[in-house]
Amino acid sequence: MNFKISEDKFAGSFTLSDDPNEPDEDVIPWNREGEITTLYKKNSVEKLEKMLKDEPNKYKQCRLERQEHFLGTAVILTPGNAEYGRKVNITTKKNHGRTFDGDIVVVEIFIQNTLSSSNEETNLTGRVVGVLKRKEDIYSKIFICRLDDFMRMVPIDENYVKFYIKSPYYKIRAKRVHFYKRLQIEHENSEIGLELKRYQYVNPHSSHHQETDLYSVRYLHWSCNHFYPFGYVEGTFPAGKSTIFDVRYRAPGVHRNEIKNEAMKFVEEFSRKEATSITTEEREDLTKLFTFTIDGKNTEIFDDGFSVEKCKDHENCWKVGIHVTDVTSFVPEDSKLDIEAEERGSSFTGNDTDKGKMLPQPINEKCSLTSEKKRLVVSLFIHSSQPPLHIYTNHKLKEADHEMPQPQLTKIKIRKNLTFSHAQKYLNKQVDLLNSVLFEKINKLWTIMWELRVLRLGAAAFYKEPDDPGNDWHNVCMAQILVEEAMITYNSCMAYFLKSSGESFIGRAEKEPIAADVEIWNPSDLSLYQKSYWTFINRNSQIKKTSLETTMPVSSEVWEIIEDALNNDKVETAVLLACCDDKQPRLIPGLNRFKAITPIAECRLMNRDDDTAHFLLRVKTYAQCSSPLRRYADIVNQRVVIGLLRNSYHLPEDIVQRVHELSRREEDAVNHERALQYYHFVENFKPEFHEGFLTKVDDLKVSATFPSLTRAFEIPKAEMALFQTENTKFTWMFRSYCLVNREGFLNLSGCMVIETVKWNEFLSLLESDLRLQRKRIVKNALLEIIEEMECMPVNTTDTKPTLNHFFKLEIDIKLQPLHFQLSRGVEWGIPTLLPQLVHLNDQFDVCLQHRRHVDVFEINRPKDENLTFSTLKLKYYHDHWVSLVRLDGQYSAVHSLNSIFLNSFSVTLEVKNGQINGRFMLEKIFCGERFIYFNEDDLICLRERQSSSGDVWIAHAEITEVKNNDSTTKVTFVVSKYHTNGLPPPPYPRQMTCEIIPLNVSHRRMIKALHSLHNPDLPALILNICLETPNQESMISGICVDHVINSVGSVRVEAFNVNLNEEQIKNIKTALKNRFTLIQGPPGTGKSLMGAHLAYYFCRINKALTKKAKVLYCGPSNKSVDVVAEYLMKTKSLKIVRVYGSMLEELDFPIPNKPKLFGLSEKPSRPPDPKLHPYALHHIIREKGKPFAEKLKEFDLKFAEAFKNQNKSDCIKLQTYQEYDKLLKEAKEAELKDKDIVLCTCIAAGGPLLSGLTYAQCIIDECGMCSEPECLVPLVAAAKSGEHLQVTLIGDHKQLQPIVTCHEAKRGGLDKSLFERLSKHALKLTRQYRMHPGICKFPSKKFYGDELITDQSVEQRRVVVDPIKFYHVNGEEEEDGSKSKFNTKEAELVVTLVKKMLKKFQAKDIMILTPYLAQCSKIRKIINSTLGVNLHVGTVVTSQGSEADCILLSLVRSNQMLPLEEDPETAWVFRNIGFVSDDHQINVAITRARLALRIVGNKDLLSKYSTWKHLVADYKTKNALEETK
Question: Residue 1121: what pLDDT?
Answer without folding.
Answer: 95
